[in-house]
Amino acid sequence: MLSKCDHKEDGFLKNEYILNLNELIMTRNYVYNEKTYQKYKITDLSVKKKNSYVRNIYEEDGKILTLKHGYPQFYTQILFEKNKPEIFVKAVLNDVESLSKISSCEKIEKFDQES
């Protein structure tokens, strides 16, 4: 679990990522601060101040990635490195890859799954 995550462009009251490596899912829970909420609400009435979403993930070369989002020529993924507080977005256009840091988290917690 990565919590108290900042963001390069947006403000949050809560921003956390829960990575379940047994079920291979990532859950993101967040609550926008008022300024960020109003910024998105102006152009999209479906925006909610508090939200949560789930994405499938996989491990590759010591990194954790969400499944590809987009088309074969252009797609994005969220990228995590184990035991590191930074979160990146990986963008690929015609097999050219770029990596941008989107967040740093103050807190990393590990939990073992109970049987």
Structural class: mainly beta
In one word, what is the shape? globular
Mean pLDDT: 93
Name the helicity range: under 10%
Strand elements, count: 9
Structure report:
The chain has one helix at 34-41, and strands at residues 2-5, 12-20, 25-32, 50-60, 63-66, 69-70, 74-81, 86-93, 96-108. 13% of the residues are buried. The model has no long low-confidence stretch (mean pLDDT 93). The protein is 7% helix and 58% strand. The two termini are 19 Å apart. Strands 1, 2, 3, 4, 5, 6, 7, 8 and 9 form a 9-stranded antiparallel sheet that branches. It has 115 residues and is mostly beta strands. A hairpin with a 2-residue loop joins strand 8 and strand 9 (96-108). The chain has 1 helix and 9 strands.
